[in-house]
Amino acid sequence: MIKEDAFAKLNLNLHIIPKKSKNGFFPIRFLNCQLDLKDEILFESQKEHVVFFCDDKNVPKRNNNLVERAALLLKKMASDQNLGAKITLKKRIPIKAGFGGGSTDAAATVKGLLKLWKLKINEKKLEELTSKLGQDFFYSYYGKLSQFEGEDNKYRIIPFPFRLPDFKMLIVEPKDKKPSSAWMYDHLNIKKIGQNIQKLSLLKNAIRENNREAIFENLHNDFEDLVFSFYPVTKKIKDDLTNAGARRSLLAGAGLSVVGFFDNEQAAQSAKQKLKNKYKQVIITKPIS
């Protein structure tokens, strides 16, 4: 049996350039980190068939499930019909909440099956998988604190070899369900995106200098205006986090979760007690190196 951890992703900076590229998508510039919140995936060998099990009934099935899609794509690339696996997902990352849970599970699946099936893939094959599984899959395959850039379906990871301060984060997930990330991109107001790109270099400098105040000041997500207008509960969460003592709060990806930043475990626990009965889920986590 092989086990792989799939870590949640958080965009510390999410910038969308307001000029679509040739393929009709917006270029993107992110600074991403991973959290110690993780799913666990187990892989067992079997002949011919790929079967998938999960302890959360809300996880999508078959073509809508990135774990199954990743496994079948990798098997097709290997051109070996005898390959099979029993894949068991222990789900802990909130689903469709802004943390790239499905994508990080897909990345962990590829890593696990490469070991189980004794395969290797090159950059070209990884690009092919990314074209089918998406940009968050590509980031999660490499992970860590990294700058992430994308344009015309071409993605680039630039590792940023520094450590974030030892602060705590409080994830607050509302009961509301969001539409797809594609819907979010389609409804962006181009006058309100790409206007804070300077925060990317400012945030990187703050991390280099271990300047906690400057880190908080330069967190940014271009989706916030859109999400706050369509889903007022997210703005309410942000206000609640501030009132509960958060140093700063930030929308997670395209939402709908919001993450509060706290100086220590005690402050985060205190805020959790205040908010846990108001929302669907409240989770304490922290960034990993």
TrEMBL record:
Record's protein name: 4-diphosphocytidyl-2-C-methyl-D-erythritol kinase
Homology family: Belongs to the GHMP kinase family. IspE subfamily.
Highest taxon above the source species: Bacteria
Domain called GHMP kinase C-terminal: residue spans: 207-280
GO BP, sorted A to Z: isopentenyl diphosphate biosynthetic process, methylerythritol 4-phosphate pathway; terpenoid biosynthetic process
Reaction equation(s) it catalyzes: 4-CDP-2-C-methyl-D-erythritol + ATP = 4-CDP-2-C-methyl-D-erythritol 2-phosphate + ADP + H(+)
InterPro entries: GHMP_kinase_C_dom, GHMP_kinase_C_sf, GHMP_kinase_N_dom, IspE, Ribosomal_Su5_D2-typ_SF, Ribsml_uS5_D2-typ_fold_subgr
Gene3D superfamilies with a match to the protein in the record: 3.30.230.10, GHMP kinase, C-terminal domain (3.30.70.890)
Function according to Swiss-Prot or TrEMBL: Catalyzes the phosphorylation of the position 2 hydroxy group of 4-diphosphocytidyl-2C-methyl-D-erythritol.
Keyword tags: ATP-binding, Isoprene biosynthesis, Kinase, Nucleotide-binding, Transferase
One Pfam family of this chain: GHMP_kinases_C
UniProt GO molecular function: 4-(cytidine 5'-diphospho)-2-C-methyl-D-erythritol kinase activity; ATP binding
Involved pathway(s): Isoprenoid biosynthesis; isopentenyl diphosphate biosynthesis via DXP pathway; isopentenyl diphosphate from 1-deoxy-D-xylulose 5-phosphate: step 3/6
Residues at the active site: K9, D136
Annotated gene: ispE
EC number: 2.7.1.148
Annotated source species: Candidatus Curtissbacteria bacterium RIFOXYA1_FULL_41_14
Segments forming domain GHMP kinase N-terminal: 65-143
Residues the record lists as binding ATP: P94, I95, K96, A97, G98, F99, G100, G101, G102, S103, T104
